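ARCHIVE CARD
Drawer: 12
Card no.: 0347
Subject: one protein chain, sequence and derived structure
Cross-reference: see card 0346
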Amino acid sequence: MTLKNTTFLIFCAVILGLGCKMQAQGTLQKKCKPNILFILTDDQGYHDVSYYGTNDLKTPNIDAIAGSGMRFDNFYANSTVCSPTRAAILTGRYQDRVGVPGVIRTFSDDNWGYLSPNATLLPQELSRAGYETAIIGKWHLGLESPNTPNERGFDYFHGWLGDMMDDYWKHRRHDINYMRLNEKEIDPKGHATDLFTDWSVDYIKDQVKDEKPFFLYLAYNAPHSPVQPPQNWLDKVLKREKGIDSTRAKLVAFIEHMDDGIGKVIKALKDSDQYENTIIVFTSDNGGHIPSKANNGPLRDGKQSMYEGGLKVPTCISWPGQIEAGSISKNNWMTMDIYPTLLEIAGTKPKDAIEGRSFLSEFSGSSAVVDADRTYYFIRREGNTRYGGQPIYAIRKGDWKLLQNSPYKAYELYNLKNDPQEKENLIEQEVEKYKELNKILMEHIQVGGQTPWQK
């Protein structure tokens, strides 16, 4: 099956507006524009999904998204850590161009980003296109006004304002409670993964009553450390996987518990007859955390690193009737590309100039390489003695990748076509290629430097 008349969606959006809907089985009012369920996980490794044949882990519900839709095998997170990638997701821009080159944290002396008040966020654009918008789960783009979810375009917020949780049952960071229902502080009981799942199920059921399509951004904290699966999930893994490393067992159980929650959310779509008119996007914010025994497949390194293991993430999208089941994209894409893709599906265009590019054409089933010469730029700024408040960078153009994992070390150059595991640094042999990529990188840095990243 191929893409079915995208212009029909645009026609519905522009000509018929909010009133565009059709009767289904005489009772349910189906919206013309598809609902959007965007599932983002935290630190999930490139191969920490069983659809890649990972033997010690079972993720049937994530697998089902890939199996019923399209799997993206070369999908890059915009950064190696949380906040920058989330900024790119919600703005369609390189993260340093919206003021978030590093992680936003509670204390100012270790804070490396401030979301630009001038950036137009995805929920704002989708609201203009007639959507109800909600975020359930982790925000991590600001702790106070004006950078709270409700102030930045979300109609509804039920979740976690801050970065990591120190405990998945107690829901605190530095002994501060960042749980919110819109602007109100709340203190719910239960495992955070279960809470976010249950709140999403409730939200989806409530949307049946609304004639507007919905955009639900479900951002789990899991499987970010501390790795705390419920005991029954850990027991199940230990019983099934004889001899498994104890640290790895906890992570597997943590991910499987989250996958079960994803299954419940999708079941809510099906039970409420909204599944057939919902596009589901699944991805992670960066590569897997190596100390937690994440599986990044054959890729080098993991979270925090500019090597491929820190940047490539498991990604899949389903859209009943529009994407061929079991299809695979081999093209390179970035997290920020989701923004214009969803806007195109919603029948609108970005208000601002953005760097993200729509990949809606992928859904037609074409195997053509898309813009093979595109430049992909990555930045992360961090503190402590390892970084000293300075940034690290990577840039990919064609088969070539220039990177730096420490501001105090020299750049490295790899040919990813010949050396996908980044074993042979060619910077001394390929001096002209180094100069070419370094020139492009400096131009990116100059543009990013025009945006403040402190309040």
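Annotation on reverse: The mean pLDDT is 93. The chain has two domains: 6-364, 375-448.
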